[in-house]
Amino acid sequence: MINNTKKRILLITLALIMLICAKAEVKLPAVLSNGMVLQREQPIQIWGTADANEAVNITFNKHKVAVKADQNGKWTATLPACKAGGPYELIVNHLIIKDVLVGDVWLCSGQSNMELPINRVTDLYREETEMYENNNIRYVKTPYGNDVKGPQEDISKMEWKALTKETAPGFSALAYFFAKEMYNKTKVPVGIINSSWGGSTIEAWMSEEALKDFPRNLLERDIFSSDEYRKLINQSSSMMNAFWDRSLYKGDKGLHDSIFWYNTEFDDSNWASIDMFSSGWSINKGYPINGSHWFRQAVELSPTQIKDGVLRVGCIVDADSVFVNGTFVGTTAYQYPPRIYKVPASILKAGKNIITVRLISYGGRPSFVKDKPYCFILGGDSIKLSSQWKYKLGCEMPTRVNGVSFQNVPTGMYNSMISPLSKLQFKGVLWYQGESNTGRSHEYEALLSSMITDWRSKLNNSTLPFFIIQLPNFMQTHTYPSESGWAQLREAQRLVTTKLPNTALVVGLGLGEWNDIHPLNKKELAKRVALQADRLAYNQKKNVSSGPVCISAKLEDGKIALTFQKGTDDFLPVDSLEGFAIADKDGRYQWAKAQISGNKILIWNENIANPTMIRYAWDDNPKGNLRNKTGLPASPFQIKVE
Question: DSSP labels for 114-161?
Answer without folding.
Answer: HH-BGGGSHHHHHHHHHH--EEEEEEEEPPP----SS--S--S----E
